[in-house]
Design goal:
Blueprint (H helix, E strand, L loop, with lengths): L3 E7 L14 E11 L4 E11 L10 E5 L6 E3 L9 H7 L8 E6 L4 E6 L4 E5 L1 H6 L7 E2 L3 E2 L11 E6 L5 E3 L2 E3 L1 E6 L7 E5 L5 E3 L4 E10 L14 E8 L7
Antiparallel strand pairs: 1-18, 2-17, 3-15, 3-16, 3-18, 4-5, 4-8, 6-7, 7-10, 8-9, 11-14, 11-17, 12-13
């Protein structure tokens, strides 16, 4: 076997074997098994992806009360919300006197004004988009959020692969290949070629499938709405000086 080689993994491969594959999480059956001798490592050499995903998905929830007892849940349509006007319309309730949202243009921060007894609950990507630091906050009093509105989430794609050794990422150990910065404008196809490949140790000598899992910074699947992801991996034999 050569001392290095490439494997290209499109997300639309192996549809009959793996019908549950998605653009953000998929498994590819290789054309032939890979059998390695010695110590090998692998890195992300190239990634092509569509910069088109919902910044508000089906997991987002928004509910409110004006008396602290009866809660109403507002239907949220998944999609890409690209302006503050769309966000404010999304947050409208039947009680505009008790629940008000004000956007401060200079600071890009959202102010929430609540009347006596009023509360709001926000869950999922919508919370981070608005500027909350927690995933599912309940707001019980008037407040101005500490962080600015951010419609461009996520800013980074965490690319995981099942054949690499787990490594330390924050407080966990996970099989992370690389963190990819999101580029280009919304709606464009992005091609990233890495000249400084970050290599990770391959944990197994023999495999005939490879799994790719793409998440955001808090571990949620990236809700791509079209197209395919194409990941190209570069395998190379470790040199003796690289052994730990």
């Amino acid at each position: 076997m050569a001392h290095s080689f490439y494997v290209t993994l499109p997300s639309n491969s192996s549809p009959l074997l793996y019908p549950d594959n998605t653009v953000t999480h998929y498994r590819v059956k290789l054309s032939q098994p890979i059998s390695l001798e010695g110590q090998w490592e692998v890195g992300l050499a190239e990634m092509i992806y569509p910069h088109q995903w919902y910044n508000i998905d089906e997991e987002c929830e928004y509910s409110y009360t004006v008396n602290g007892h009866q809660w109403w849940r507002k239907q949220i349509d998944p999609g890409y919300y690209g302006s503050m006007k769309e966000i404010l319309e999304l947050l409208e309730t039947n009680y505009p006197e008790q629940i008000q949202y004000l956007y401060h243009e200079k600071t890009r921060r959202l102010e929430i004004r609540l009347g006596e007894g009023a509360q709001v609950r926000i869950k999922g990507r919508l919370a981070g988009l608005l500027g909350f630091q927690t995933e599912a906050p309940t707001v019980t009093q008037s407040t101005t959020l500490d962080r600015p509105l951010d419609l461009r989430q996520p800013h980074n794609l965490f690319v995981y692969c099942d054949i690499v050794e787990p490594r330390a990422v924050g407080h966990t150990r996970v099989p992370l290949l690389r963190v990819v910065n999101v580029r280009q404008r919304y709606g464009e196809d992005v091609s990233v070629i890495f000249t400084n490949i970050h290599y990770q140790s391959v944990k197994q000598k023999y495999f005939d499938t490879i799994e790719i899992d793409i998440r955001d910074s808090v571990g949620r699947k990236v809700p791509f709405v079209r197209g395919n992801v194409i990941v190209t991996l570069h395998f190379r034999l470790k040199r003796a000086s690289q052994f730990v």
